[in-house]
Amino acid sequence: MTTIAEEVLLLAYSEDEGRQLVGSSELDAALGGALLAELAVNGRIDLADKKVTVLDPTPLGDEELDTTLARIAAEPKERKPDWWVYKLHSAKLRKRLLTRLAEQGVLREEQRKILGIFPSTRYPESDPRVEEEIRERVRSVLSGAVPDERVAVLVAVLHAAKVDRKAFPDANRERIKEITEGDWAGKAVAKTIAAINSAVMTAVIAGSVAASSSASSG
Fold first, then answer.
1. Alpha-carbon gap, residue 88 to 215, rounded angstroms
2. Cβ neighbours of residue 134 closer than 8 Å, sequence gap 6 or more
3. Paired residues of 120 in beta bridges
4. CA dist list (Å): 92 to 32, 95, 218
5. Cβ distance 46 to 40 under 8 Å?
6. To 5 degrees, how large is the angle CA 190–CA 20–CA 132?
């Protein structure tokens, strides 16, 4: 089964060309948020009261998730979700997840050159069934089905990083708002969705500001 982070990646890349549909700042923030979301859905952490608290340090058997859980458990101070999203997101994480999907046969890694000079790596799909199954789950919820917590936080991450606009351009904006506001869910689930949505949005903004400052000073 794919992780939420892997699902975000598959939806954030074009199937045929294997190129990113959103900027790196947005995508990397979404991946950091997806790691937190997965740990929360699996009962390993709690995101209430604007803090990330470890509830159960037991590993899940996934290298990325277990490393993240261990980092949170080892942090001496309780941090906010957006602090962790910003701490976790990186191009290296994106690369590791893409490589893993390629090794699993879901994507294939293609080396290309832009203008015949600049090296570029693309990740077109090798097995489209995996993404199609993810799309079916999300489409069902966007069409009105009651989401489970896992699909809801996936939609929240996609929305916060603006991936939803590219992956599901015809989706009803009001329906996405309903899902991300969590009124359909219990209080605990609603808090998790709100915390992830807010944390990813904050990290996206911080990443964009940092990128602009870097460009200005360069």
1. 23
2. 2, 7, 10, 11
3. 112
4. 11, 5, 23
5. yes
6. 65
The 10s digit of each residue's pLDDT in 190-201 is: 888 888 988 998
Angle between helices 91-103 and 4-12 in degrees, nearest 10: 90
Tell me: the pLDDT tens digits for 137-153?
Answer: 999 999 999 999 999 99
Residues contacting 31, CB < 8 A, separation 6+: 5, 8, 9, 88, 89, 93, 94, 97
Torsion sign over Cα 7, 9, 11, 16 = negative
Measured distance CA(73)–CA(64) in Å, rounded: 14
Task: Give one word for 61, left, alpha or beta, with left for phi > 0 and alpha for psi -120 to 50.
Answer: left
Residues present in the chain in total:
218
Supply the pTM of this predicted model: 0.90
Compute the mean pLDDT over every residue in the chain, rounded to the nearest whole number.
90
Q: How far is CA 215 from CA 44, 86, 161, in A?
A: 38, 19, 21
How distant, in Å, are the alpha carbons of 132, 166, 173, 202, 218 from that of 63?
25, 29, 35, 26, 36
Q: Give the whole-angstrom CA distance, residue 198 versus residue 158.
A: 12
